[in-house]
Amino acid sequence: MVNLRSAREIRLMRRAGLVVWQAHEAAARLIRPGVTTGELDAAVEAVFQRYDATPLFKGVPGKIPFPAATCVSVNEEVVHGIPGKRVLKEGDIVSLDTGCRVGGWCGDAARTHAVGTVVPEVQRLLDVTRGTLELAIELLPKQALWSEVAERLARFVRESGFSVVDQFVGHGIGRDMHEPPQVPNFCNATTRRNDFRLRPGLVLAIEPMVNMGKKQVVGRSDHWTQVTADGKPSAHFEHTVALTSSGCQVLTGPPVTDEEHGWLNEARAAP
Ligand code: MG
């Protein structure tokens, strides 16, 4: 069962998305050689607290509950890295993935950053992965089925010489972070079997993960961190996106209207 959201519900989800955007901005300002992954997570959590937003990742059940508000994944770490004492170095890449709930509605987004200057091939990995997400957002209002979008995303990554991760997928999002449908970034028999029609009211967390080398991913013994099997770097970009009758709205993007700027300022000022 895929949930379709009204214009009013999408406006409410935008608030969670704005807080997620603000949290990413706060963390991005800290990224430089010498910062720890724990400091990035603390910056995210401080923004959530300021807006009275509930972190979605903290306490997610597993062999150990996820201990932080942000997944912070460095270099060959694909997703679900645990932030802590690790110090970032010049030339690293770092993926931050976080989400929160505001007023009962969820937002979820991820970005991969270069730490200082990275080698050109790694920069290309970041550009291609961001480009894959941008392509999805561009195609969403133009195609009838998700599989058509997924096929194009996979082709774009393949033609760039990189690999799409197929062990993890995006998801519907609304009252809960993970709702149906599954939103794969590749098109195989499973994609077609679980295909869905692109209709106004759909809200999806679209999140391509792209590996520089082979697509295979393995789990580390900390029960959370997922790394590339070949040890090569991986990048991850994600937005929460609403499909509306007038096109596509990126709910975790920067404020655009006066109302959105106003809400961000007022909500922060509230006791
Ligand atoms: Mg997600």
Brief account:
It is built from six helices and 15 strands. The protein has 271 residues and is an alpha+beta fold.
Describe this structure in words.
- The protein has 271 residues and is α+β, with helices and mostly antiparallel strands.
- It has a single domain, classed as Creatine Amidinohydrolase, CATH 3.90.230.10.
- The protein contains 6 helices and 15 strands.
- Helix 1 packs across helix 2 (37-50) and helix 3 packs antiparallel against helix 4 (146-159).
- The protein starts with 6 loop residues before the first helix and ends with a helix.
- Magnesium ion binds at residues 108, 171, 205, 207, 238.
Report mean pLDDT, rounded to a whole number.
97
Helix/sheet category:
alpha+beta
Oligomer: single chain
Summed up, the helix count is 6
- Identify the CATH class: Alpha Beta
Predict the CATH topology: Creatine Amidinohydrolase
List bound small molecules. magnesium ion
The largest beta-sheet arranges its strands as 8-7-9-14-15
Q: What order do the helices and strands follow?
A: HHEEEEEHHEEEHEEEEEEEH
Strand segment count: 15
What gyration radius follows from the Cα positions, in whole Å? 18 Å
Highlighted features:
24% strand, five-stranded antiparallel β-sheet, Creatine Amidinohydrolase, 271 residues, alpha+beta, four-stranded antiparallel β-sheet, binds magnesium ion
